[in-house]
Amino acid sequence: MTTTPKLTPSGLAALLCARICHDLVSPVGALGTAIEILDDDANADMHDDALDLVKSSSRRAAAKLKFLRLAFGAGGSAPGVIATQEIRTLTTDMFEDAKAEIVFDIHSDGIEKARARILLNLVMLGVQAVPRGGEVRIATSDAALIVVSTGPRAKLDETVERALKGRAPEHGFDGRSIQPFYTTMMARECGGGITAEIEEETVTFRADIPA
Prior knowledge:
Blueprint (H helix, E strand, L loop, with lengths): L8 H31 L7 H26 L8 E3 H11 L5 E6 L4 E3 H16 L5 E7 L3 E7 L7 H7 L13 H12 L3 E7 L2 E7 L3
Parallel strand pairs: 2-4
Antiparallel strand pairs: 1-3, 4-5, 5-7, 6-7
């Protein structure tokens, strides 16, 4: 019989750090490659391309850092409301290269910070659910945050579903599965919960948070 490793506070922190590093490794790695080319006079004919890579990679790294800072961190210690436009900009920049189209159906000017953090995490799951592209629609109400992902071969991973229910994967958490678990932790701290369901080519993530 396999015993699931216990998740400790330090383990949670380490896994969240691992997830952030995983998301940043691609643009930071590309930035390093571009700098190496610029430092090599033998590749002078590639310097223009390298400069373009520096610009695009630094922009991508900055976009991911800004998004993850709010999604995983405090995004500033003071409580408050995050402007809907800021959420839109963070999300659009973060998923600029995603195959899915991000559609916003939010009619309020702002979202309370704790709810905004949960919403950003749901969007991460929503984009992940349609790896072949499609549409990720983001909607909110007074008591719910909803992300609906529709696309060919949409999927709801079993590890994601278990984590959203507060259950660990059979062999313990990793940098990928910790994110949905952390999302449901935040929802529970707000007195709510998260559900996820799939029907044909549509996956719906819903966080019910008391107003």
